[in-house]
Design a protein that fits this description.
Order of helices and strands: EEEEEEHEEEEEEH
Strand content: 25-35%
Distance between the termini: 60 Å
Number of strands: 12
Largest sheet: 8 strands, antiparallel
Shape: globular
Structural class: mainly beta
Low-confidence stretches: 194-206, 208-229
Mean pLDDT: 84
Radius of gyration: 22 Å
Helix content: under 10%
Length: 229
């Protein structure tokens, strides 16, 4: 598939190590107006192929499951709170500084990247669960030009409780939409205007976008055309 550009990256940090739900304040939508994502490289989607030999030749090649999936995520200016929350830093109440020490543990997160295909349709790629590690922080002195130091995070994916690690799709194919895809990955819809969950969107407990049937009681009337009593 021909991919063109990197439009948006959405990061949702889970509420805890055993709690995969995501609070509104822990969702960040990163685009040209916020964060400036510049690269999203997914590696090792497939597992290593194992060859079994017999009769002096290759008898079968065995491959199942996923590989050791890693994502290198680069951006111009990630929000400080996103980095601190994902990395498990602690906030010092006196100084206001984020502290990184022996008790810091990266918190599981979910991740979606949005590109486009050659026709302009959104191509969505998502990771259900994983943790971030942080790259170097390397400011340089200015000279006759301003020297910019940008951000880099590595996301190590893992399978969720349903054994799923990665998902992808093209908007408009098989009724897929970006909203459905976000609900699949984050368990809730995302307002693509400001990065926050849509106010009335129910959280989904299932690893898919299929909403449960309505619990509303069925009407006793045979149809909606019955005359008013």
């Amino acid at each position: 598939m021909l991919l063109q550009g990197l439009d948006t990256v959405i990061v949702g940090v889970h509420n805890g190590f055993g709690d995969s739900t995501i609070s509104t304040e822990n969702i960040w939508k990163l685009d040209s107006a916020n964060g400036g994502p510049t690269g999203f490289s997914i590696k090792n989607l497939s597992p290593t192929v194992t060859k079994l030999y017999g009769g002096d030749g290759t008898y079968i090649t065995a491959s199942a499951g996923t590989g050791d999936i890693d994502i290198t995520f680069n951006a111009l200016d990630l929000p400080e709170k996103l980095i601190a929350t994902a990395m498990g830093y602690q906030k010092d109440a006196v100084s206001g500084a984020w502290l990184h020490g022996k008790d810091s543990r990266p918190v599981p997160a979910s991740l979606v990247a949005i590109s486009h295909d050659k026709t302009g349709q959104a191509v969505v790629m998502g990771l259900f669960k994983g943790t971030f590690t942080r790259g170097d922080v390397n400011p340089q002195t200015n000279n006759n030009q301003t020297q910019n130091s940008t951000d880099s995070l590595t996301f190590s994916a893992m399978q969720n409780a349903q054994g799923l690690a990665y998902a992808e799709g093209v908007e408009g194919t098989d009724d897929l939409t970006v909203d459905k895809f976000n609900t699949l990955i984050f368990g809730q819809a995302i307002d693509m205007g400001n990065g926050l969950p849509a106010p009335d969107a129910p959280a989904s407990d299932a690893p898919n976008s299929d909403a449960p049937a309505s619990d509303a009681p069925a009407s006793d009337a045979p149809n909606s055309d019955a005359p008013v009593a």
